[in-house]
TrEMBL record:
UniProt cross-references to Pfam families, sorted A to Z: 4HFCP_synth (PF04476)
Keyword Hydrolase assigned: no
Keywords: Lyase, Schiff base
Catalytic activity: 2 D-glyceraldehyde 3-phosphate = 4-(hydroxymethyl)-2-furancarboxaldehyde phosphate + phosphate + 2 H2O
EC number of the protein: 4.2.3.153
Source organism per UniProt: Candidatus Methylomirabilis limnetica
InterPro entries linked to this entry: 4HFCP_synth (IPR007565)
Protein name (record): (5-formylfuran-3-yl)methyl phosphate synthase
Length: 252
C-alpha cells in the first residue's frame, strides 16, 4: 500500500456490469469498481456480476467491489465481505451507514477484515464514511481513519444521498484536507467520491487524494442510472493526466 506523494492519483470508475467495465477500461480507468447504483451509494452487485466483471477486466486493472451501505451488524457484513472476496476482486468496499461511533466502526471493520483474511490474503478492505453523515446519522468521517487503520488498506468519503450535491458541497475543504492527512499519517490511502465533476476531480488531486471515485460524471447524460461512456471516461482521464506532474507509479 502506498499513499499520496508516492503515486499519481488514480481514476476509479464505478460500473454495474461487464459492458460498463469494458467501456471504463477503454476510457482509461485505473480501477474498476463494481457497484449496483440501484441499491444505494455503495450498493452491492450480485456475486455472479462481480465474477463476470473480474473475468471481463482480465487483470487489466484492479477490481473493487462495494458490499453495501451497511447496517451495524458485523457478522452479517463480514459474510458479505467473504462473498465478495471469493469473486476475485482486489478490494472490498464497505459503506459505514449504520455505525455511529469510531468504536462501532472499528468493531465492524475488524469482523470484515477477518472474513477477508479467511478468503484470500490479498484482498484489501476500504472503509467508507459519508460526507453527508449529519443528514443520515452515520459516523463522522473524521473518526474513520483512526478506527479503520488496524483493518483497512484505505478510506473513502462518498455521499450517501445522491441528489447531485457534491462532496465539496457537503463538507468544507478544510475537513477533507484533514481527512486526507489523517489517512496518510496512518499509512492508509485516501479515496474521495461524491458526484464529482471534472473540476472537483482536479480539486481532489490538488488536495492530495490518492483515488477519485466517479460514476455520475462518467455516465451518458450525466445520469447515475445511465450507462458508462468511454468518451466521458476518456475526458476525465485526459484532464487528470494533463494535471499530473509525476509519472504514474502503481498504487495497487
Ligand atoms: O465510488 C464512487 C461512486 O460510485 C461515486 O458515484 P457518483 O460519482 O455517482 O457520486
Amino acid at each position: 500500500m502506498q499513499s499520496s506523494g508516492r503515486s499519481a492519483m488514480k481514476l476509479m470508475i464505478s460500473v454495474r456490469d461487464e459492458q460498463e467495465a469494458v467501456a471504463a477500461l477503454a476510457g482509461g480507468a485505473d480501477i474498476i469498481d463494481v457497484k449496483n447504483p440501484a441499491e444505494g451509494s455503495l450498493g452491492a452487485g450480485r456475486p455472479e456480476t462481480i465474477a463476470a466483471i473480474v473475468r471481463a477486466v482480465q487483470a487489466a486493472a484492479p477490481v473493487s467491489a462495494s458490499i453495501g451501505d451497511v447496517p451495524n451488524l458485523p457478522g452479517t457484513v463480514a459474510l458479505a465481505g467473504l462473498g465478495a472476496a471469493t469473486c476475485g476482486v482486489r478490494l472490498v468496499k464497505v459503506g459505514l451507514l449504520g455505525t455511529r461511533t469510531g468504536a462501532e466502526a472499528a468493531n465492524l471493520l475488524d469482523a470484515v477484515s477477518g472474513a477477508l483474511r479467511m478468503a484470500n490474503g490479498t484482498v484489501g478492505l476500504v472503509a467508507c464514511a459519508y460526507a453527508d453523515a449529519a443528514l443520515v446519522g452515520s459516523l463522522d468521517p473524521l473518526e474513520l481513519p483512526e478506527a479503520a487503520a488496524p483493518f483497512a488498506e484505505g478510506c473513502l468519503i462518498d455521499t450517501a444521498i445522491k441528489d447531485g450535491r457534491t462532496l465539496f458541497q457537503c463538507l468544507p475543504e478544510a475537513t477533507i484536507t484533514r481527512f486526507i492527512q489523517q489517512c496518510h499519517d496512518r499509512g492508509l490511502f485516501c479515496a474521495l467520491a461524491g458526484s464529482l465533476q471534472q473540476a472537483d476531480i482536479l480539486r481532489a488531486l490538488a488536495l492530495g487524494a490518492d483515488i477519485v471515485g466517479v460514476r455520475t460524471a462518467a455516465c451518458e447524460g450525466g445520469q447515475r442510472s445511465g450507462s458508462i461512456s468511454t468518451k466521458l471516461v476518456e475526458r476525465l482521464k485526459a484532464s487528470l493526466s494533463s494535471h499530473l506532474k509525476s509519472p504514474c507509479v502503481p498504487l495497487l
